[in-house]
Protein backbone atom coordinates (compact mmCIF):
# COMPACT_ATOMS: atom_id res chain seq x y z
CA UNK A 1 0.00 0.00 0.00
CA UNK A 2 1.08 3.47 -0.60
CA UNK A 3 1.81 6.03 2.04
CA UNK A 4 -1.06 8.59 2.43
CA UNK A 5 -0.21 11.99 1.15
CA UNK A 6 -0.44 15.06 3.35
CA UNK A 7 -3.59 16.01 1.46
CA UNK A 8 -5.18 12.65 2.28
CA UNK A 9 -4.13 13.05 5.89
CA UNK A 10 -5.69 16.52 6.01
CA UNK A 11 -8.95 15.25 4.46
CA UNK A 12 -9.14 12.40 6.98
CA UNK A 13 -8.49 14.81 9.84
CA UNK A 14 -11.16 17.18 8.53
CA UNK A 15 -13.71 14.31 8.29
CA UNK A 16 -12.88 13.17 11.82
CA UNK A 17 -13.17 16.72 13.14
CA UNK A 18 -16.55 17.11 11.43
CA UNK A 19 -17.79 13.86 12.97
CA UNK A 20 -16.43 14.82 16.38
CA UNK A 21 -17.98 18.29 16.09
CA UNK A 22 -21.40 16.81 15.29
CA UNK A 23 -21.10 14.38 18.21
CA UNK A 24 -20.08 17.20 20.56
CA UNK A 25 -22.97 19.36 19.34
CA UNK A 26 -25.42 16.51 19.95
CA UNK A 27 -24.01 15.94 23.42
CA UNK A 28 -24.22 19.66 24.25
CA UNK A 29 -27.79 19.78 22.96
CA UNK A 30 -28.69 16.82 25.17
CA UNK A 31 -27.15 18.54 28.20
CA UNK A 32 -29.05 21.77 27.47
CA UNK A 33 -32.28 19.81 27.02
CA UNK A 34 -31.76 18.07 30.36
CA UNK A 35 -31.13 21.44 32.04
CA UNK A 36 -34.28 22.91 30.50
CA UNK A 37 -36.36 19.91 31.55
CA UNK A 38 -35.03 20.17 35.08
CA UNK A 39 -35.82 23.88 35.25
CA UNK A 40 -39.37 23.38 33.94
CA UNK A 41 -40.33 20.83 36.57
CA UNK A 42 -42.06 22.75 39.35
CA UNK A 43 -40.95 22.09 42.86
CA UNK A 44 -43.45 20.01 44.81
CA UNK A 45 -45.81 22.26 46.78
CA UNK A 46 -45.13 22.50 50.48
CA UNK A 47 -47.33 20.39 52.67
CA UNK A 48 -50.47 22.39 53.44
CA UNK A 49 -52.00 19.52 55.29
CA UNK A 50 -51.81 21.18 58.70
CA UNK A 51 -52.33 24.76 57.59
CA UNK A 52 -55.99 25.67 57.74
CA UNK A 53 -57.00 29.10 56.61
CA UNK A 54 -59.74 30.77 58.64
CA UNK A 55 -62.86 32.11 57.01
CA UNK A 56 -63.00 35.77 56.14
CA UNK A 57 -65.68 38.13 57.43
CA UNK A 58 -67.45 38.09 54.08
CA UNK A 59 -67.73 34.32 54.15
CA UNK A 60 -69.18 34.41 57.67
CA UNK A 61 -71.72 37.05 56.63
CA UNK A 62 -72.71 34.91 53.65
CA UNK A 63 -73.16 31.86 55.87
CA UNK A 64 -75.24 33.86 58.34
CA UNK A 65 -77.49 35.17 55.55
CA UNK A 66 -77.98 31.66 54.18
CA UNK A 67 -78.93 30.38 57.64
CA UNK A 68 -81.40 33.24 58.14
CA UNK A 69 -83.05 32.71 54.78
CA UNK A 70 -83.23 28.96 55.44
CA UNK A 71 -84.77 29.56 58.87
CA UNK A 72 -87.42 31.89 57.45
CA UNK A 73 -88.20 29.33 54.75
CA UNK A 74 -88.60 26.55 57.32
CA UNK A 75 -90.86 28.82 59.43
CA UNK A 76 -93.14 29.56 56.45
CA UNK A 77 -93.23 25.87 55.54
CA UNK A 78 -94.24 24.99 59.13
CA UNK A 79 -97.01 27.59 59.08
CA UNK A 80 -98.25 26.27 55.74
CA UNK A 81 -98.33 22.70 57.09
CA UNK A 82 -100.21 23.84 60.20
CA UNK A 83 -102.83 25.64 58.07
CA UNK A 84 -103.13 22.61 55.80
CA UNK A 85 -103.64 20.34 58.79
CA UNK A 86 -106.32 22.64 60.19
CA UNK A 87 -108.13 22.80 56.86
CA UNK A 88 -107.97 19.02 56.52
CA UNK A 89 -109.43 18.62 60.03
CA UNK A 90 -112.30 21.04 59.25
CA UNK A 91 -113.05 19.27 55.96
CA UNK A 92 -113.04 15.89 57.73
CA UNK A 93 -115.46 17.18 60.41
CA UNK A 94 -117.80 18.71 57.82
CA UNK A 95 -117.81 15.54 55.72
CA UNK A 96 -118.42 13.42 58.81
CA UNK A 97 -121.32 15.64 59.83
CA UNK A 98 -122.78 15.46 56.31
CA UNK A 99 -122.43 11.67 56.30
CA UNK A 100 -124.20 11.35 59.66
CA UNK A 101 -127.00 13.61 58.43
CA UNK A 102 -127.30 11.49 55.30
CA UNK A 103 -127.48 8.26 57.33
CA UNK A 104 -130.21 9.66 59.57
CA UNK A 105 -132.19 10.76 56.54
CA UNK A 106 -132.30 14.46 57.17
Describe the structure.
Helix content is 78%, strand content 0%. It contains two helices and no strands. The termini are far apart. The chain is rod-shaped. The longest helix has 48 residues, at 57-104. It has two domains: 1-41; 59-106.
Summarize the SSE layout with pairings.
Elements: H1 6-40, H2 57-104
- Number of H/I helices: 2
What's the main sheet like? none
Q: How many extended strands?
A: 0
Count of folded domains:
2
Low-confidence stretches: none
Strand content: under 5%
Structural class: mainly alpha
| End-to-end Cα distance | 145 Å
Radius of gyration in whole Å, from Cα? 46 Å
State mean pLDDT (0 to 100 scale): 82
Q: Can you tell me the overall shape?
A: rod-shaped
Q: How much helix, percentage-wise, in residues? A: over 70%
Order of H and E elements: HH
Quick structural summary:
The chain has 106 residues and is an all-alpha fold. It has 2 helices and no strands. It has 2 domains: 1-41; 59-106.
Which descriptors would you attach to this protein?
106 residues, mainly alpha, 2 helices, 78% helix, rod-shaped
Amino acid sequence: MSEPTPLDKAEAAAREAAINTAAVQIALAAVELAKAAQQQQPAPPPCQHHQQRGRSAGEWIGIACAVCVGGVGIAFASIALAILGGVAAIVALVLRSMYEDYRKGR
